Amino acid sequence: MKIKKEYERWLANAVADTDVAAELKAMDYVEVEDAFYRDLAFGTGGLRGVIGAGTNRMNIYTVAKASQGLADYLKKHFKEPSVAIGYDSRIKSDVFAKVAAGVFAANGVKVIDINAGIIDVASSTPFYGVRSMFNNPTADGLHPNAQGDLLMAGNLAKGMGYAGRSAGQERKAAHELEVNFGQSPSITQQTLEANGFTANNVTISNNTVNFNKSGSSSLTYNWGAAQGQDKGYTVDFTLRLGNGATGGWDTTNNFSLNLGNGTLNINEAYIQWGSTILYSKDMSANADSIRVAYVAGDRANGLDAGYYIWLGDVLIGEAQTAAGGSSSGLTFSYSGTLDAILSNLALDGSLSYAPSTTGITGPESLYLANGASPSTLKPGMIEWTAGTAATAVATAGTNATYNVRNTTNSNIASITGTGSTKFIYANNGAYGSAGNRQDLWVTLGAGTSSANGWIGGHTTGDLYGDIHLRLAEGAIGKSTVFGVVNAGTVHGDIYLEFSSSTGVYDTSFTTGEADRTSVAGSYASAVNGDITMVFNDGVFSHRIFGGFYTGNKTISGSASLFINGGTFMNEIYAGNKTDGTISRGTSLTVTGTDAILGKADGDNWTWTLLCGGNKTSGTINGGTTITLKDIAATTGAGTEHQFDKYAGIIDGKGAGTVNGEKKLVFDNYAASFLGTLQNFDKVQITGNSDLSLDKSLGNTVTSLSVNAGSTLRFNRDQDATLDITNNGTIRTSHNLTLKSADTGTGTYQVEGGTLDLAGQAVSGKISLSAGALSNTAGLGAGSVSVSGITGNVNLGGLDGSKLSSINMGSGTGIISGLTGHADLSGSDTQLRLSAANMGADGTGIIQFNDADNASLTLGNLTLTLTADAVALLAAPGDYSFHVTNAALHADTNHITLSEYNGMAWDITRTEGGQVIISFGQLLDAMVIDKGASKNVTSANTLAATPSVTNNGTLNIDLSAATAPENKTTIRYLAGTEADAVVNTGTDSDVIITLLNETSADPDKPGNTAYAGSIEGAAQLVKDGEQRLTVDGRVTASALDVQQGELALQNTKESSIISGALNVEQDAALTLNAASLAAGDLAGSGSITLNGGALLSIARDTLSDLTLHASVTGSGTLKLDNCNLILGTDNNLGEDVLLHLGGGSLRLQDGSAIALEGLHQEQENGALHLGADGRLELASNDGKTYSFKGDITGTGAITHRGEGTQIILSSGNAGVDVSHTRTGGHLVLGDKDLAANGLMTYRDIFIGSNTRDASDLDATADLSLMNNTTANSLSIASNGKLYLGGNPNQRAVQLVLTGNNGGVAATLASGASLDLTVNTETLTNSADNAWAALKAENGSIRINGTDPSINVNIYGLGAAGDWAILPEFTVNAFYAENGLVTSDGETWTEDMVNLTYAGFANLVYDISKKLSDDGKLFQVHFTKQGDSPLKDFASTGNQQGAADSLWAVTSSPENITPDMMEFLNAMGNAQAMGNAEAIRSALSSYAGSGITALHSAQKGALRDQVLHLRNRLSQMGVSPQYIHDDLPGFNAWIEGEGGYRRLDDRTDESGYKLSTWGGTFGFDVTCSDSFVWGAAFSASYGDLDAYMANGDLDSYYGNLFFRIQSGRWAHNIILTCGWNDASLDRTAGIPGAGMYTMHGSTSGSSYGAFYEGTYDLYLNENNTSALQPLVNASVYRSRMDGFTESGGLGMNVDDMDSTFGTVGLGARLRGELSANLTGRASLGELRVQVVQLLGDRDTAAVLAPAGIPGAGFRVNGAREGATGVQVGAGITIPVGYTGSVFADVNADFRSRANSFNGSIGYRLTF
b/e string for 397-420 if b means 16 or more Cβ within 10 A? Predict the structure, then answer.
């Protein structure tokens, strides 16, 4: 019974979803029981089930029920609940998402669309995603890629109340950036120019810049010095662009922000980086700021460099590519004519910043430019001094005074103590003077407290300097804290900071509740400066005063309080307790929600008073400011008393006198304010605040301003007491009355209640969704809109001219209270009509007060129908819909019915205030405007439509069962918009006919052109005798061109036919530079490929395709898995390229086929010529085509183009091959180009004996890549035959077997033959009957009156295959019937013009030889006696290289391919006489850069000993004192860096060595006279040398000793080192090939150093001395031999040297100053002359790898023997046992110098 009742209830009431209603009616008993026996249950995947009717099914009712339950829960547990809703393209996903959103919205739950930005707003398909944001853009659209994930994550976070990602950047609001127009100054021509902008062709008004002028408009800003660099920069702005769907989406005219190295493009529908879509949004309605920041990145922490883009605070683009980090400036530009309105402009050229946020933020890691650490300072805090400081202990029970100061600062690093003192004075007495300021820095640390006194910065006398007092973590406090007490005057600023979580600031100094004070700025002391207090933590039991506690004195500056945290249990005043004057105003800033302002009073909570003024008396000049900043709503346990819950009183004045403005600022305040405000002249809402006021402001506030980007919501009625300036958004659902005109440009959103304008002018906009207006006389034209209606709207007698638009959305209601004439033709109007608006008794949805004298004019009108309205459409006929009670003026062509799927419909006319819609009748022509869409769900609609003009979107949603072919016809398809689309649906069995027929009816135009695309799975048929031209893409399951012509001309995307393409006889398909792919080809019609068009036919399996259609034009026919059969009538055009992707080409017997080219990608191709077939190939325009396969049949293959045709085949003895065109090339080779491959052809013809006058040297080239047999050969005067060549210097023989009248080969005078010879050629040439070109049965004849031919010889094969012979011969020509001329004479040697190059040119002289019988022509090679390269060598290294290369040519068996390539290049250079290239190549081959490894090794060793010498010279004890605590132990560490340079000397390599490293050492002072120790060093170096670079890393172990005897000192160092080195070197001939070599090796060194000094004291206390010094050293270094890898790698022998130095100089050293411990700083200056002894030359012995007999010596550069060394050092004591030291050294000598330095720390134990 229960199931039946529930079923009947549903049957009666569930009518909103027609699918559910229909299913309910059709259910039988079993289906009813299964659908209603239970409620749908939640499972592991959530609420899931079968879609259908019933409580046990998924439908809009079960979804709504579950949504309501969740809404109830959220409202119960959260103050401001929100949800994020996601959906995809699966069945009813969009419907369920809308239902859920509607339920939540109705319950006051904020709804976030998780798909925002991913849904393509420009698509005519609802909920259609941006393709590029999905992993498979052409498939399901279900799985977002990284960009889609980024947007969804941002939306989800927003829905949960969290902040958007910061990309590791510090957050700054737009108005905090370096240059901004978000608050003030406003944007004007003058302020733009004053801030460095240049505006061109723009309109500047109302604080905006509009780029809509005709032509190109721009706004440019050039970065200043140190701006726009790699460390980052930021641009922030708000943009509204275009008019959305009105007139169609313009996605081609971009508003661009060009930053020089990257461009942000924005159009009506998309935000793009370059052409990549980041976000899809209707930019005409955009109110979110857009921020672009170049972020330097921190790759180690996962932050890539590039541009980051935010919309609002949501990150929509990350690490977008930039062409380098730096930018010279930025340019906003736009060339369209739509409104492009830029506002809230801000930028910062110094750093990258993320936008501020109202969302919840947690700890955010900041990765800033150049490795800088993020600031940990809270608002108001200052950087603490880094100066040297003292420490002290506060003694319990005493008056503690701390007077530690020097001539500059009194810096007490920390005062700590375990007991309470009576008083703590930071200083006592006067100090400093006007010319000698002494700043005070005091930190009270752990345990410090004053139980019965006070803590103060200063007592008695005048102080010249600033007071800084910080209570750090662990400080207890207990009593009152003063900035200054009982002083005369503080000539400086006072800074108090409270950062101790254990701090409790009670009072024992002040008594009586009226006087109890925890903190005060001054006690009876004048302050000539500012007072700043920063509260980060602690408990403050009593009052706080920023100014005076007592004393009628003056503060010349300001008093500022910053509250960042802590608990405040009593009143807070930024001003004075009693008398006193603050000259420059006060400020009180509360940042964040961590501060607790109040205390428990029994079960109640008492909030703390915040006051910008005084408590009882006093004077403040300069006004007061209270700022509430970065406040966001908090939830959960423990947040009950955080500042976002503050409900106390905030007072701008207090008692006494305040001269100046009293101001309250809500800055980035994103919560409800529950407190009470009083005594403010102005309240300002700024910083993207989203503020709700829960109380009436009454008469306590004079003026209110809302800045751009901020929102204020009134939750109570507000009387006419406020002067309002609204540049942001004011939302009100209660009564609000204006007091005066509002000059702001913001928006009032009326959501309920009445907005009483009191006749005042409002410069901004007013938008209503519910509620009423009154007294609207002061409003301007077009200032009011109705949008997203949620209830009835009363416009309060608004003149129609002041109404700009109506968009009701999904809500219903009546819009009343209009007067006069309303013209909305300039905007889109959307109305939702119900049954109440239909029929004779219907009422208009838009009501005018005086309807008889009123009218409504509309432009584009979209009507949607509620379910009760649809239910009344029972039968075909005309239905009236009441739009207004006034006269309606609307063009029926611009009225659209959406959200309706039923009978065919048409807007027929308007009558009075009604729209008449005809359902089920014969329709007029269908016209779809740009941006509009029409859904056809009935074949009847198409059948009744005489023609279709589509400039928007036509969606055809039919199935084969409901779409008979004769009714699914689109007649005369036309349209001019490229982004128009006809969607044919997803059913491939639907057949849609595109009909263009001949008719006398003038309304049937015959030929039509459609600029849009046709997409979908339906089959397409082109019918009718006339032409249809489609500019866009076409996709279909089949395409049948039955009549007339179909022309496709989309050049951007390929049209795809998944099935067959059929072109019937007398029908035509034309591709104009377009691409079309199909699964098969049939029919005998005409196909034309124009402008490089591509027609692709791809079958699944290989089969025969007989081409009956005619394919012509200049495009490509690509066939996959097709054996193409052509008839004798040649239905392929001669300019068509045939591309075989598997399959073959078959000609009929005797046919002649001409093509652009033949291209075959796979190896299984075949060419069938039939009997006596002829194939002509053009390959024009320098293009290259390749065919690989068998050739069968007989006939000829002719190449006649200027491009290249490659044919890889074994050939055919019945087929001629020829190439005739100069500049072109025919290449013939075996299929696999194998070494033993063979080819056979009939006759070979090359050239045409005609030359182009513009290029007389051009030849017609034919190459044979394998040994070939042919009947005969004919080479014209402009012909050239290549025998061989690459790969692998292959030599090829052509054998001619024919005898054409006794002649086998005919060579016209001027013909050319290129021979590639190798060792096989030499072997074969031993047989005088063998030759590269051999005629077995005939003669080889040169024709012409002056017979001569050209023979070019290349290569001698791969090195190592043959030995250098004293002489050898190559047989070039052999003819059994002789080598003859046209008159029968035998050749002479001078008839052959012989050239050769390459390696042979380095070794041989060459000559020509003709056999006595005149049959054989030979080329004879004779070895030269010495290297010809010696004549070019100009240095010793070059001479050695030339000798080495000559030796290399004598060891050919060891020559590598790279070496042979190098030798060939050298030979070519010699042949051309290029001396400069040869010398450069010899120097690079010699490789003197190798010597730099050893030279740098020796220099690094000397530098390391010098560092140690500087340390050792300062060790030991002072002879002035008696030392009874020896031995002494010391340890030290230092960092070192250096640079050494030795100049190159011609091609003798010097080097540049940059090093860094360090040393760790210890030493023992055994007695007054003896020190010993050890040290360990590491140095890492980058080495640059002659045509080389590498690394030199060195490690050293050292022992050292110092002996002090009176004034004499002796220093001894023993050192041992080892090295790791690598070198990359280049060699070769520039332009002909360079080679890179790499080598790695190790080395070792050892040596000893001695230095003796004598002290000459320069003062009485012996603290300064001049030390003459003498030193000497001896070293032995070796760099181990190694072998380089790479093309011209060398074997390198060991390099070793024995060398030393002697030096003579002096050292000046002395004490500089003493520190607080009595230890003195030491400084020294050094100079000496050093003589280098021993092996100063560095040389290496090299040999090419694998050719030891080709070794040679190469020399490096030599440094000067005598040098001057200078240096300086300083040692600064730190504390009692430590010291910091630093040294710098320099060495200057001929052709070399070095610089190095070190810094370190030494500790004595």
Answer: eeebebebbeeebbbbbbbbbeeb
